[in-house]
Amino acid sequence: MRKFLALTVLCVGFAAPVAAQNFTTASEVRPILNATQANWVAVREYDGQDLLYFTHLLAWRCGLEAIHFSVNGGDEQQFEAEPCYEDEPTPNALKVTDILPYLRFDLQSVETVEVRIVYDDGAETIAKFDRAQIQIP
């Protein structure tokens, strides 16, 4: 009986490893993006311009179909992102070769930003930010 209990405890202690997630679907990235909504975009003054960064969203882009935004209540535009590298070990990695993770605007011109993300399952989430919420030093 003692051997049986020891063997049972030993086997229970070695559960099968959890399958690794690549975070390439809406169901995988939605909880992360919901929890980190305040970090979706950032604005920084650099070299006489406002740079509007989408880096955080790009890090989870494989579960997204599109990233839309508008600045200061203007027309909505789509942010063109790098593709998802699903055939590579780190599909969400940014290579930053042809597409930069930010857009340039006139210095101190970005007052508000509205972001609408579309997940690959068709669901959408919208967030609105004032400059003070997203400005980084």
Structural write-up:
The chain has 137 residues and is α+β, with helices and mostly antiparallel strands. It has four helices and seven strands; from the N terminus they run ααββαβββββα. 22% of the residues lie in helices and 29% in strands. The N terminus is likely disordered. The longest helix is centred in the N-terminal third of the chain and has 12 residues. The protein has one domain: Immunoglobulin-like (Sandwich).
Q: Which terms would index this structure?
A:
four-stranded antiparallel sheet, disordered N terminus, single chain, Immunoglobulin-like, alpha+beta, 137 residues, three-stranded antiparallel sheet, globular, 29% strand
Gyration radius over CA: 21 Å
> How would a textbook summarize the main sheet?
4 strands, antiparallel
**SS summary, helix count:** 4
- The arrangement of helices and strands along the chain is HHEEHEEEEEH
The percent of residues in helical segments reads 10-25%
Q: What integer is the average pLDDT? A: 88
CATH architectural category: Sandwich
Read across the widest sheet, the strand sequence of neighbours is: 4-3-6-7
Gap between N and C termini: 66 Å
Question: Can you identify the CATH class?
Answer: Mainly Beta
Ranges where pLDDT stays below 50 over 5 or more residues in a row are 1-20
Please count the beta strands (DSSP E, at least 2 residues each).
7
Structural class: alpha+beta
Apparent shape: globular
The CATH topology comes to Immunoglobulin-like
